[in-house]
Each structure stands twice: as structure tokens, then as C-alpha cells.
Amino acid sequence: MAxxxxxxxxxxxxxxxxxxxxxxxxxFDFLRAEIADRMQDRLQDVNRRFETTLDVGDNCMRxxxxxxxxxxxPLADGDLSLQQNKYDLILSNLGxxxxxxLPGMLIQLxxxxxxxxxxxxxxxxxxxxxxxxxxxxxxxAEITGxxxxxxxxxxxxxxxxxxxxxxxxxxxxxxxxxxxxTYEHPLKLMQDLRGMGEANAxxxxxxxFLRRDVLKRACEIYQTEYxxxxxxxxxxxxxxxxxxxxxxxxxxxxxARGSAKMSLADALxxxxxxx
Length: 275
Description:
The chain is of the alpha/beta class. The protein is 35% helix and 20% strand. It contains 8 helices and 6 strands; from the N terminus they run H-H-E-E-E-H-E-H-H-E-H-H-E-H. It has helices spanning 11-23, 30-44, 102-112, 130-144, 157-166, 186-195, 212-226, 264-270, and strands spanning 52-56, 69-73, 87-93, 113-124, 170-183, 233-245. It has a 6-stranded mixed β-sheet, with helices on both faces. Helix 4 (130-144) packs across helix 7 (212-226). The longest helix is centred in the N-terminal third of the chain and has 15 residues, at 30-44. It is elongated, with a radius of gyration of 20 Å. The two termini are 39 Å apart.
């Protein structure tokens, strides 16, 4: 029997954070809206019309007028209770980085696709919030002699391709975008993260509030090491995209390992060949 996945996220807190963010309306949805637009661009390159679509996590903002019947699915660990071979298209926008068992979710989504069905997902990647992570760890270590994880770990794009293959997807492709958002002050960034539902939900997080002296020092480090000439600070958001098809006899066979030359845009534009 395969080992159970190591749970690092507090699923109750994840849902609470997301619900709190949704209650604020679209005020903090700028990043999800931007990535939904970029996913729409990628989807336009797929020469296909989809009759049945599943939005996993309800973050896709009805991003395509070619989606046909549109359903909302849960972004959660465990059994998603999805009907097998039901959907032509499955989408997920900036949510999978909170899933404890990502391989298990990808397997379930693949099973829910019709033969030759398509999956497109985005999630935050390993370089996300690297500046904030460094500032908080450095300040806490400097003042208290220890440090707690204040920013969650994010997936590395190098791992996603193998995860898609293990989950049984045909023609898997991964891609990266890097978006830099600038802020007047690190505290404004932290406010946005809470409003986006992206606050710390690690099971092992410290239950104590961050000390004021540590927070002040973290802001100083952030501004000193990363501040721009105009006094603003950058925040990196690395976006990882995953695409894959449910296997079908008409599809191309995978190329030899290490021989891939195709960009994501070309792979989407071509799609699986038809007989």
C-alpha cells in the first residue's frame, strides 16, 4: 500500500481563510482575475469546444464562453465524489497549492475527465513571496534566536510534470509566469494576502501573534534589501500552469525522455490529433 500523504495544511483554517476573503468581495481578487485572463488566453489556443466544464475551487470566474455547462467542484483533500468520465474540461485557478494530497487530487480529476478531455490548472510556485519569507525569517531569528514558518512552502515546477505523469495524464505540459506586484509598505502586502485568503494555514504554524518588534524589523529588512528607488517594495508571485489530457487512442505518443521541444502555447494550439 502506498504511504498516505503528509498533511502540512490545516484544512479547516484554509477554508476559513478563503471564506473570509470571499466575504470581502472582489476587492482582493486582482491576482486571481489576472491569472484567469491568462488561462483564458491559453484555452483559446485549444482547438476544441467543451460541453461540460468543472471549476475546481470556484476561482475561474467563468473564464471561457466555450465552457458549456459549468459546474463548481470542491478544492479539498480526500474523496471529491466526482462522476467518472463526465467532463470535457476541468479548470482550477490558484488553489491547488493548498491541497495536502496533490497527487491524489490530480488522479481524481483525470478520472473525472472524458476520454480526450482537457485539464488546465494554475497554482502558486516556489519563488512566491520569497522576499517576505526571507524578511520574516531573518527578523525573527535575529531578535528571538529562532524562527517559525510564516509563509507556506510552494511546489517546484520540476515536480509537476512527474506528478501529472503519475496521475495518468497524456501529453502533460508545465509552464511558469512570474508576476511582480509593488507595494508602498510590507504591511500592505500582508493585508492583501489576508484579503486574498492566502494567510498562513500551516498545521505547524505558531499560534502566537508575531511580536511587534519582529514585525517592525522584518519591514526594515524587506525595505532595505528589496526596496526600489521610488520607495516601494516588490512581491514576487510565481505562477505554475499544468495541462494534461485524459488518454485517448487518437493522441500522440510521448516523445523520448529529454527530447521535448514544444512550448506550452504550441502544445495547446495543436491539441490531441483527431482521426
